[in-house]
Design brief:
single chain; Rossmann fold; 32% helix; globular; alpha/beta
Length: 232
């Protein structure tokens, strides 16, 4: 299943951080909830499964060319487990930012019917920023806390920072804040430990540099797989 939405704008509202930086946003490794297609969005969430742990280890070599100065994760354990091998290899601490957490499934938490969840995000893309799944966030609330997390990363003054987050959250934020993301990705599948790289700042905006781990069904699957659902 692919989550797509049109351009969003909840106002931005971030402080001024004008330094241009390279921001690497990684989706966490695979969990049992991904395999079972469960809406697992609340903390602490499922651990990485065996495949997910191997995916996390592979990030060390897959990203060895990146000069990463800071590492971040959400408050869900799967993101922290995903970044752990990188942290060990780079001898860097991991800072946990709650704002990087997944878009909550509300009353659908741990269910396997994602229709209301996806429909809500589609409404956001159509301009209904107040739509919410019962017990969840609306677009304004989500964008505010995710923008704040990204602004906090930018405020660190690093040239390159990496944050591990979640499938739906990354899609929605990038659709709103990274011009060209939707044109490039569309309805493509977002694989576990795929990533989005953008350069810019919260003040000046972001430019899409690279998107790895997105599969357009029927295309050449070079470097890509379709092993897991792109939600949470």
């Amino acid at each position: 299943m692919a989550v797509t939405c049109g351009p969003l704008d909840s106002g931005g509202g971030t402080a001024s951080y004008a330094q241009i930086m390279r921001l690497i946003l990684v989706r966490h490794g695979q969990t049992s909830s991904n395999v079972e297609l469960l809406l697992d969005t609340a903390a602490p969430g499922a651990d990485l499964d065996n495949t997910g742990r191997q995916q996390a280890l592979s990030l060390v070599s897959r990203l060895e060319h990146e000069v990463i100065e800071a590492l971040y994760a959400s408050n869900l354990v799967r993101t922290q487990q995903t970044v752990a091998p990188l942290a060990q290899a780079r001898e860097l601490p991991v800072r946990v930012l709650h704002g990087l957490r997944e878009i909550p499934a509300g009353h659908a938490e741990m269910g396997n019917d994602a229709s209301d969840y996806v429909t809500t995000m589609m409404k956001w893309g159509e301009g209904d920023l107040t739509a919410r799944i019962p017990g969840g966030e609306n677009a304004i609330e989500f964008m505010q806390r995710y923008d704040e997390a990204i602004a906090e990363i930018a405020a660190g003054g690093h040239n390159t920072a990496l944050a591990v987050s979640h499938g739906a959250a990354l899609r929605v934020w990038a659709a709103a804040r990274v011009p060209g993301f939707l044109d490039t990705i569309g309805t493509a599948h977002f694989d576990n430990t795929g990533w989005i790289i953008a350069e810019g700042s919260p003040t000046d905006g972001w430019q899409l540099v690279e998107a790895v781990g997105f599969m357009h069904y029927g295309n050449d699957p070079t470097r890509l797989s379709i092993a897991a659902d792109p939600i949470n």
